[in-house]
Amino acid sequence: MVTLIVLAVLGLGAFGLWRWAVAQGSAGTLEWIDARFARDVPARLAAQGRYGPADQQNAELWTPAGKAPAGGWPLVVFIYGGGWHSGDTPEYRFVARTLAERGYATALVGYRLVPEGRFPAMLKDSAAGVRWARDHAAAAQVSADKLVLAGHSAGAYNVLMLTLDPQWLAEAGVPERAIAGTVSLAGPADFYPFTSDSARNAMAGVTDPRTTQPINFARADAPPILLLHGTDDTVVRVRNSRRLASALKSAGGRVQEVEFEGMGHAGIIMALSKPFAQGGKVLDPLLAFAAQARGASVPVQRENR
């Protein structure tokens, strides 16, 4: 009986913590909570710096503590969301800690926000951040090849555009062959006409809005893409991932789409933290894709969870 009471109290406490984190609506709050949970494998800050003069043009490279495997730690370059108007690299260190536990190095890349970061500045910055990560990889015993791009929300948009429109990585001096695959968590891919203030502000001044939409760059020879989306997302509707998956499939591209029933926009990024991992509901398909993309082709498929 005592055990049941303790479990019930712990369960209520965890639920209350989750509700509080959602109510705060802040990655900084999530980072604060996550930092208080012990990790089996700690993450180590291997490099930190800027790739440009603006404060937001910053990046951090994290690795698992301990000896690197032969060939170096595999690398995920993660770009955060925030509607292109908010967010900061240190707020997403929980992603690096989570991936370090699973044997991955993580580069957290910042980018200029609006108004300075309006299209295409956020893409130029994201590509330059990928270049920074590759430039600092060897000294940290990280593999600069076969890296995986990942992002949430606006950050997912950034990595989708880097993946599908090759001009941005090429301009930054990053060869497309260095990208093993890309993971989009709740990414906007087909959102013109612009209906939200964040989209209108980020894309202000664009002469041809079609050039801002990832779906218009679907192609057969793009790196493989994993689209993760919650069905209850009211910020970036799941139709974005569904339409992009369909466009990529029609073009002969390599794509997986995984939908999470009942999950919202915040829940999908919270699932990459220690306290709200939900048994690896989001992390497991992400890592399975990363491993497959780094070593094998990725089939076209759709999955619901």
Key features of this structure:
single chain; 305 residues; alpha/beta; Rossmann fold; 9-stranded mixed beta sheet; 10 helices; 9 strands; 37% helix
Strand fraction equals 15-25%
N-to-C series of helices and strands: HHEEEHEHEHHEHEHEHHE
Unreliable parts: 2-15, 18-24
Q: Quickly count the helices.
A: 10
CATH homologous superfamily label: Alpha/Beta hydrolase fold, catalytic domain
Largest sheet: 9 strands, mixed
- The top-level CATH class is Alpha Beta
> What's the count of strands?
9
Mean pLDDT: 92
Q: Based on Cα principal axes, name the global outline.
A: globular
What share of the residues lie within helices? 25-40%
3D architecture notes:
With 305 residues, the chain is an alpha/beta fold. It has one domain (39-304): Alpha/Beta hydrolase fold, catalytic domain (Rossmann fold, 3-Layer(aba) Sandwich). Helix content is 37%, strand content 18%. The protein is built from ten helices and nine strands. The chain has helices at 2-24, 27-34, 93-101, 121-137, 154-164, 167-172, 197-202, 239-251, 265-270, 283-295; strands at 43-50, 58-64, 75-79, 105-109, 147-152, 179-185, 225-230, 255-260, 301-304. It has a nine-stranded mixed sheet, sandwiched between helices. It is globular, with a radius of gyration of 18 Å.
Please specify the SSE layout and strand pairing.
Layout: H1 2-24, H2 27-34, E1 43-50, E2 58-64, E3 75-79, H3 93-101, E4 105-109, H4 121-137, E5 147-152, H5 154-164, H6 167-172, E6 179-185, H7 197-202, E7 225-230, H8 239-251, E8 255-260, H9 265-270, H10 283-295, E9 301-304
Parallel strand pairs: 3-4, 3-5, 5-6, 6-7, 7-8, 8-9
Antiparallel strand pairs: 1-2, 2-4
Helix pairs in contact: 4-5
